[in-house]
Specification:
globular; two-stranded antiparallel sheet; 13 helices; three-stranded antiparallel beta sheet; binds glycine
Length: 372
């Protein structure tokens, strides 16, 4: 790794630390989701409450790199504020909330009480399993499967491994297979949502909430799939899931625009006006970069490993440019500009979004600390 690149990544991480520290001082104990005009606190709708683990998770990442006890203290404090969510049956996001907080905390301390939180959250998420269709239902309704859940199902694999509970394992494997067979297309692109007949479990059709159309390729959904299947492979060692992540990666890499940051949907019509047209989606780039860094270590093919890593670093380089990094944008409270939450609802469009912040920090930390 060249020193100039490492220095740039370290500078971006230090900027991220300043932005997160400032937010904790400005608005103690608040978990921001997306900015409006660059400001975290606003009256905008949440849609669903799923992002607390990203804010606290960045604090764990900062502590991992700096060993600064202040970051650890903040990380523990904000993580504790999330503990009650382990029994939350209203969201499908318990992996996002706990794997970025209680897992690093447990790995540092080996305190069994922290592991119990992770196991309980895994069991709670498994309670969303729909027997007829063999999937974990999304937060919107019982007939709905989201691609996003691929990033959360790892907490069920984790709980199954920790407890030896075979039923948890079977639920997690079934969910991944249904997602692979119904949402991941032969070309490696993904649908955001699948709809099922609740009684018979029959798959009815593709659908979307945040993508351009049912049959388009919402950029963040594809990133969730790429990284989610890679995480599942890491936990399960089942090759069938590695090959799904690699199929996602092939689509991702061959459809990236020249500056390496995707538009919000790979089927976006760039001649249309914003927000439908050429709107960039920095958070999808950050998620995919972090996933590709892992996938580069997992693939059995050396040429693919080199391609995944090179693409991840190119995306991170682009995100470290002040066009995306808010380092030269006075008054902007986020770290990364040009993310999108929900285009149709007009939430967080061309703004900072908390998951983009987290995965950017996570990916840079993998490079700087682990030399990935
Ligand atoms: N998981 C919700 C989203 O990606 O916006």
């Amino acid at each position: 790794m060249e020193n100039a690149r490492l220095a740039r990544y370290e500078q971006a991480l230090q900027f991220a630390e300043r932005q997160v520290a400032a937010e904790t001082e400005r608005d103690p104990d608040y978990f921001p989701i997306y900015t409006t005009g660059g400001k975290w606190r606003h009256e905008g709708e949440l849609w669903t409450d799923w992002t607390g683990g990203f804010f606290a998770g960045m604090m764990w990442q900062f502590h991992r790199r700096t060993k600064d006890p202040v970051w650890r203290q903040r990380a523990e404090h904000y993580s504790k504020l999330l503990e009650h969510r382990k029994l939350d049956r209203n969201v499908h996001d318990l992996g996002f909330i706990f794997l970025n907080t209680y897992l690093p905390w447990f790995q540092l301390t080996h305190d069994p009480a922290l592991n119990e939180v992770l196991i309980t959250a895994g069991r709670t998420l498994a309670g969303r399993f729909v027997e007829s269709g063999q999937y974990l239902r999304s937060f919107v309704s019982v007939d709905s499967l989201f691609i996003d859940i691929m990033m959360n199902v790892p907490i069920i694999f984790y709980a199954a491994k920790q407890t030896g509970d075979q039923q948890l394992w079977q639920i997690a494997v079934a969910h991944c297979r249904t997602t692979r067979d119904r949402l991941v297309r032969p070309d490696g692109s993904t649908a955001h949502e699948g709809l099922f007949h609740v009684e018979t479990g029959e798959f009815l059709r593709e659908s979307t909430h945040q993508g351009r159309s049912a049959d388009s390729a919402w950029a963040r959904g594809l990133a969730w799939s790429l990284y989610g299947f890679s995480k599942v492979y890491a936990l399960s060692e089942m090759e069938e899931f590695l090959s799904v992540s690699e199929r996602n990666a092939a689509y991702w890499i061959s459809h990236l625009p020249e500056d390496r940051v995707p538009y919000w949907d790979f089927h976006a019509d760039l001649s249309e006006p914003l927000p439908w047209g050429p709107q960039k989606e920095s958070s999808a780039a950050a998620i995919a970069a972090s996933g590709l860094l892992d996938l580069a270590q997992q693939t059995k093919v050396p040429e693919k490993a080199a391609l995944y890593r090179r693409t991840a670093l190119e995306m991170l380089d682009a995100l470290c440019d002040p066009e995306y990094l808010a380092i030269d944008t006075p008054g902007w409270e986020g770290i990364l500009k040009h993310g999108v939450y929900h285009t149709k609802k007009g939430l967080g469009v061309d703004e900072s979004v908390m998951w983009g912040e987290y995965f950017f920090v996570e990916a840079l930390t993998k490079v700087v600390v682990d030399g990935k």
